[in-house]
Amino acid sequence: MATKKRYRPNVAAVILSSDYPQKCEFFLGKRSDVKNTWQFPQGGIDKGETPKEALLRELQEEIGCCDVDIIAEYPYWITYDFPIGVLARKMYPFDGQTQKYFLVKLHNCAEIKLDDFHEPEFEDYKYVEYKQLLKKATFFKRHVYRRVIEHFIREGHIVNVNRT
């Protein structure tokens, strides 16, 4: 008999730099606990929290800043399995995550402080164009990132994006 998979409820932030829309660049953070892994800020939804509340809390915990405007919310939950290895062991007993994505823009005065939380999630970050993002992001999240960002582009929430 097959066991039912368990997915952790989670939020993720597609962050546009404060230079948007003049410059369309996305925030990518380099995880401090998994070697050479670049991703969007994300994290679990605590009991009793709404996804938007979790989003703002996770941004504060992971990048030391929740000075953002929420532009849009991806209309669906996206579920994926963890790849076999370190991440799967770290996230036990979950087999993967079910995520709600938000598109946010940093305020002009926003200051990223990666060491603001007692256990920093990221050790470095950079702003990258869309085509670089899809090359730099960790392999098992690229298809999800593409799906979410392409939706935001189609809906007119992201403009001035360089796809080539």
Task: Summarize, please.
This protein is an alpha+beta fold and 164 residues long.
Give the termini distance in whole angstroms: 47 Å
Individual helix count: 4
Rounded mean pLDDT is 92
Helix-residue proportion: 10-25%
CATH superfamily: Nucleoside Triphosphate Pyrophosphohydrolase
Count of extended strands: 8
CATH fold naming: Nucleoside Triphosphate Pyrophosphohydrolase
What's the architecture, going by CATH? Alpha-Beta Complex
> Quick one: overall form?
globular
Q: What is the beta-strand fraction?
A: 25-35%
Uncertain runs are none
Notes on the protein architecture:
By secondary structure, this protein is of the alpha+beta class. It has one domain: Alpha-Beta Complex (Nucleoside Triphosphate Pyrophosphohydrolase). The chain has four helices and eight strands; from the N terminus they run E-E-E-E-H-E-E-H-E-E-H-H. It has helices at residues 51-63, 86-90, 130-136, 142-154; strands at 7-16, 26-31, 38-39, 42-44, 68-73, 78-81, 96-106, 122-128. Strands 1, 4, 5, 6 and 7 form a five-stranded mixed β-sheet that branches. A three-stranded antiparallel β-sheet has the order 3-2-8. A hairpin with a 6-residue loop joins strand 2 (26-31) and strand 3 (38-39). The N and C termini lie far apart (47 Å). The model has no long low-confidence stretch (mean pLDDT 92).
